[in-house]
Amino acid sequence: MSVLRAVVLIAATMATGLAAGVFGLYSHTIMRGLGGTDDRTFVTAFQAIDRAIINPWFMLSFMGALAFTGLAAVLHLGQNVRAALPWILVALVLYLVAFVLTVAVNVPLNDALKAAGDPDKITDLAAVRRAFDEAKWAGFNLVRTIATTGAFASLCWALVTSGRAN
């Protein structure tokens, strides 16, 4: 395996694994923990978490998974390195599902909750929380978790396949 192909495939695998971990953490810990809180705590904490997650480390994994996986697919188009290509393409499709859901569903819900403003100035926190629709957010996050975990597993197998081909 060429060094560039190997490095890109490893980067894709690592970034995708990190993204899967973030989405999984939301599913099994963050949303469950926030679900049992009062409306003020939920709105305040979720707004703070959503502001904090937009940072270079998260963006590197979230955007990097897509970019590195796409680049890995391109680098595996050659005749002698195609054994891993199907697994990389599966990972790319699964990650695209998660990416599109993030942009189309979860981020707009996050943004609407942030747009509600300072929780200390919101007169009806229960209405803001209902409008956020925790069940919808969590349901789509579960799909993101499953998709990114599947993408991670596919990339792990692509690494194995690439190693066997050489």
TrEMBL record:
Protein's organism: Nonomuraea spiralis
Higher taxonomy: Bacteria, Bacillati, Actinomycetota, Actinomycetes, Streptosporangiales
Protein name as it appears in the record: DUF1772 domain-containing protein
Keywords annotated in UniProt: Membrane, Transmembrane, Transmembrane helix
Membrane-crossing residue ranges in chain numbering: 6-26, 57-78, 84-105
